[in-house]
Amino acid sequence: MTMQQPYPDRAATTAAFADHVDRGKATLLGSFGADIVMGRRSGIHFWDAFDGRRFVNCHCNGGVFNLGHRHPRVLAAVRAAMDELDLGNDHLISGWRARLAERLAATTGGRLPAVVFGVGGAEAVEVAIKVARARTGRGGVVSAVGGYHGHSGLAMATGDPAYRDPFGPNLPQFHQVPFNDLAAMDAAVGDETAAVLLEPIPATLGIVPPEPGYLAGVQTLCRERGVLFVLDEVQTGLGRTGTVWYHEQEALEPDVVITAKALSGGVYPITATLMTREGHAVFDEHPYVHVSTFGGAELGCVAALTVLDVIEEPGFLERVSTLGEWFESELAGLPCTLRRRGMFMGLKFDDPYGGVAAAGKLIAAGVFAVFANNDPSVLQFLPPLVISDDEAEELVHMVRGAVA
Ligand SMILES: Cc1ncc(COP(=O)(O)O)c(C=O)c1O
To answer: Once rounded to an integer, what is the mean pLDDT over residues 19-34?
Structure first.
């Protein structure tokens, strides 16, 4: 049975959305044929609610739909949990939170044994910054120009001026340096620095791969100067690059790791900030110094535990790596360069708006993908990790047809 839409057609839906949710978004999306209204969704696809157009979801909302839409195992687990559980109470002891934290800790080989849960990625970033400040007694935070860590308070302060200037002066002690520029990082990290916060592969900047040795160099600077090395693996984590965490591929040992999007299984929002026991000490002293009412909701824990079950199945991560290589060979010869780690992919065009143009063509061809906001020459290309061989063949055919 298809759930009935709240409004009878696209025009009424768009008008109500524009009136009450976001006029700017309605206008902008309409201007390039992306005024899609998500209807039915299943696996790698979703369908427009009104004209039935089918899209392969290669946006995946930055990883939210890494396991596709409505993964049967995630749904079954959450459905079963709904018969007995609800949000739980973040003021109390919870076996579900404990089990999820234990499983997340195990993904780091026990190096980051303590976890703070949240609801959104920005919140998880804020926790990381709070932890770094408490641990070091310093205030400074260095992040990358064009990086993206979310749009609230401390997280917004780490981002680009375009996203914060409308909202007044930035917070003090936040500095940005160009990504992949170790000398600039060296100059920026000093006695006042609490944390260096980086996406290992900045997504909004255009899926920019780190230069060999760059991240290790930043980690060394951090160690030498008593600064916490914080990796935002919100997009790169949970299997997208072919390992649970991207940082494993460079044998890095971050002090804090942030995960969000994919942890939800696309079904129930939950995020986590993983840290060392020492980093977590501030919460041991003041257990209610940081509270998140919905953070680590028990239904979300059930969803997240199932996500871990799926990505830890034998062969799952190997397949992501193999598929990534396959995409690389199949997309060779297109008028763009492929940036890729596992199935975290970006198509870089020479034209400064090549990613925008490609997104328009792909949407028309039935592939939903978007350009990188801070570098519109790049199309972000994130097929669901659960894509089958046949679906991948069909997808490549569509992409080649649209982009060539
Ligand atoms: C790398 C990264 N960090 C943090 C965030 C913020 O997550 P949220 O939108 O859940 O606050 C995002 C969101 O796109 C992200 O891509």
So the answer is: 92
Q: Is 122 in the pocket of ligand 1 (CB under 6 A)?
A: yes
Q: Which amino acid makes up residue 363?
A: I
Identify the pLDDT of residue 107: 98
Q: Specify the amino acid at residue 203.
A: A
Say which residue the tokens 């375009």 belong to: 162
How far apart (Å, rounded) are the C-alpha atoms in residues 62 and 262? 8
Rounded Cα distance between 286 and 15, Å, is 48
CB 203 less than 6 A from any atom of ligand 1: yes
Sheet holding 45-48, edge to edge: 38-42, 45-48, 54-57, 367-368
402: nearest Cα among 304, 336, 319: 336
The overall average pLDDT reported for the chain is 97
How far does the centroid of ligand 1 lie from the alpha carbon of residue 202, in Å?
11
Question: Closest Cα to residue 115, out of 257, 324, 318?
Answer: 257
What confidence score (pLDDT) does residue 115 get?
98
Vertex 176: Cα angle to 175 and 181 (nearest 5): 130
Q: How does residue 1 score in pLDDT terms, banded at 50, 70 and 90?
A: low
Two structure tokens written together for 129: 């910054």
Tell me how far the alpha carbon of residue 66 lies from the centroid of ligand 1, in angstroms: 15
Dist CA 354 CA 67 (whole Å): 28
315-329 confidence digits (pLDDT tens) = 999 999 999 999 999
Residue nearest to atom 3 of ligand 1 (CA): 149
Q: Is 206's C-beta closer than 6 angstroms to any atom of ligand 1? A: no
pLDDT tens string 255-281: 999 999 999 999 999 999 999 999 999
Amino acid sitting at position 24: G
Query: The tokens of 244 are what?
Result: 């649970």
Integer angstrom CA distances of residue 258 from 224, 230, 247, 298, 343: 22, 8, 12, 19, 19
Mutate to test the pocket of ligand 1, among 233, 234, 273 (most ligand atoms within 8 A of CB): 234
Residue of 148, 204, 246, 270 best suited for mutating to test ligand 1, as the one with most atoms within 8 Å of CB: 148
How many other C-beta atoms lie within 10 A of the C-beta of residue 164?
17
User: Is the distance from the beta carbon of residue 148 to the nearest atom of ligand 1 less than 6 Å?
Assistant: yes
